[in-house]
Amino acid sequence: MSFRVKGKIIKILSEQKGTSPRGDWKKQEFVIESNEDQFPKKICFTLFNDKASSLSGLTPGSDVEVYFNIESREYNERWYHNINAFRVERVSESTSAATPPPYNPADVPPIPESEGGDDLPF
């Protein structure tokens, strides 16, 4: 199951790197503030390995849409949760406030002339 949320990046934390028995890894965390609900919520997301490059070119203040999964695991009878982002997209102002094009009477096709006068079937 995946989720998505729109918000503004308020902080990009420093990248963390390490080595595990499975090889090298890197982790990048960032925080957004979502205004989709009545009360703004701050959410910290984690990007792992090659997904960390999703933040390149983004700075605090950028409007983004984040696609993510939620994962929980148990350790010593305590539960820990991760919010793992897998895609981060910049939201442009033109797509966030999309308006229809202005009305132009020339865009309406002409009404065809019928031969019998009235083309109603009844």
Largest sheet: 6 strands, antiparallel
Distance between the termini: 53 Å
Range of strand content:
over 45%
CATH third-level topology: OB fold (Dihydrolipoamide Acetyltransferase, E2P)
Q: CATH homologous superfamily, by name? A: Nucleic acid-binding proteins
Summing up helix and strand content along with how strands pair, one would put the structural category as mainly beta
- Helix tally equals 1
Low-pLDDT segments, ≥5 res: none
Q: Calculate the mean pLDDT score and round it.
A: 84
Count of domain modules: 1
* Overall radius of gyration: 25 Å
Strand segment count: 6
Just name the CATH architecture: Beta Barrel
SSE topology:
Layout: E1 3-12, E2 16-20, E3 23-34, E4 41-48, E5 63-75, E6 78-90, H1 93-96
Walkthrough of the structure:
This protein is elongated. The protein has 122 residues and is mainly β. Strands 1, 2, 3, 4, 5 and 6 form a six-stranded antiparallel sheet that branches. Helices cover 3% and strands 50% of the residues. It has one helix spanning 93-96, and strands spanning 3-12, 16-20, 23-34, 41-48, 63-75, 78-90. The mean pLDDT is 84. The chain has a single domain, classed as Nucleic acid-binding proteins (OB fold (Dihydrolipoamide Acetyltransferase, E2P)).
In a nutshell, what does this entry contain?
This protein has 122 residues and is mostly beta strands. It is built from 1 helix and 6 strands. It has a single domain, classed as OB fold (Dihydrolipoamide Acetyltransferase, E2P) (Beta Barrel), CATH 2.40.50.140.
